[in-house]
Every structure is written in structure tokens, then in C-alpha cells.
């Protein structure tokens, strides 16, 4: 039931007004365009900016000392990341990579702090946005601990398709490799391939032209 609870919590949260945020007077910001698979920042880099995805998508991944990589989040347009600097984080705890051509707004930490103190409406929406994302991260952990790889894959596809945020029953997902999906849900690429073929056969997804996810995929998540 995690997906439906997440969507309910997001509907209750005030919607972030990106246009007002981007137009904020005095906000020190720069836009940077990234190609697919281009690095936005690397684990261990100085943490002195908050980033906002205007268009595109970003993968956050952590690299262990043994060289093993774990994908911890897939973000899309309208998402913030790198906000750890606001809580005193001095270095990046993960690496960020563009998964599709992306335009990303970089906001200096001090400028962001001043904006949040000065404009309460934006501050409220930013906090609500981050709380909703924290809820999703907690649900990701529960999903990883208790659900089968098939359910984890179904839920991941629904999250990537912005289930609960869009009215359309079918939504096209940003291109993502089966290898990355396998890293996200903690299984092998061959298992992901097996379940993707199964989902397509049942009409839950369509890979004919890109990747289209149908809301009916939720039945896999809810099935005991």
C-alpha cells in the first residue's frame, strides 16, 4: 500500500510554485545544461549549492569503499537535490548523474537560506516538498526490506511515472536502463528483464515506443 499512501501525502502537501521560486528577486542562481550520463557532482565534492531540476532527470548513487554502487534515488523535473548543505553537510554523500538531457538550476547555499527566511510562502512549500520526498525515501526502505523484487520493480516504475502526481492513466517514463533498475531494486538485470516482459504481456507497461507505464501496474504492488 506504500504507493497509495505516498500519493495521498503528496496531495495534502502544498504544491511547490516553481515559477515564483525561479522569479525570486535577488536569488543568486545559474542554469547548467547536462548531457545524458554527464556527472552533475561526485561523492566527496564540496557541498555548497542546492540544485533544482527544471527539465530532465537525475540519478543519485552511492559508491562503497569496495567499489560497489547503489542507486538511492531517481529524480525528475521539479525536484530539489543537494539540500544537505542547508543542514551543515560539507561534502556530497552521493554522486549525481543526468539520466537524460537536463537543465539544472544551481543556487548558492547562502542565497537559498536568505530566500527561505525572507519568503515564507516559498519556505513552506520547500519544506513540504522535502518532507514528501523523505516519506518516499522511508517507503523505499520498507519496500526494499519486505517486498519481493517483482513488487519493488512495479513500485519503482510507478514512482518514475509520477504516480499520484499526474491525472493521465498512462505516462511515459524517462529512458532508464534495465541495469539501473536492477541497481535500484537490489536484484539482477536478468530478473528485471523477466518481470518487464511479464508486465508488458499483461498490459501494465508498453515498451514499443519508449517506456509507458499504466496506473494498472499498481495491482502488482497491492497484491498479497
CATH class of the largest domain: Mainly Beta
Q: Please provide the ordered H/E string of secondary-structure elements.
A: HHEEEEEEHHHEHHEEH
The end-to-end span amounts to 10 Å
Give the count of helical stretches.
8
Helix and strand composition category: alpha+beta
What portion of the residues fall into strands of 2 or more residues?
25-35%
CATH arch. level architecture of the largest domain: Sandwich
Anisotropy-based shape:
globular
- CATH fold topology of the largest domain: Jelly Rolls
Helical content class: 40-55%
The radius of gyration over CA amounts to: 18 Å
The chain-level mean pLDDT equals 82
Biggest β-sheet strands, sense, barrel:
6 strands, antiparallel
Q: CATH superfamily of the largest domain, please? A: Jelly Rolls
- Counting DSSP E segments of at least 2 residues, the number of strands comes to 9
Low-confidence stretches: 1-13
Total tally of structural domains: 2
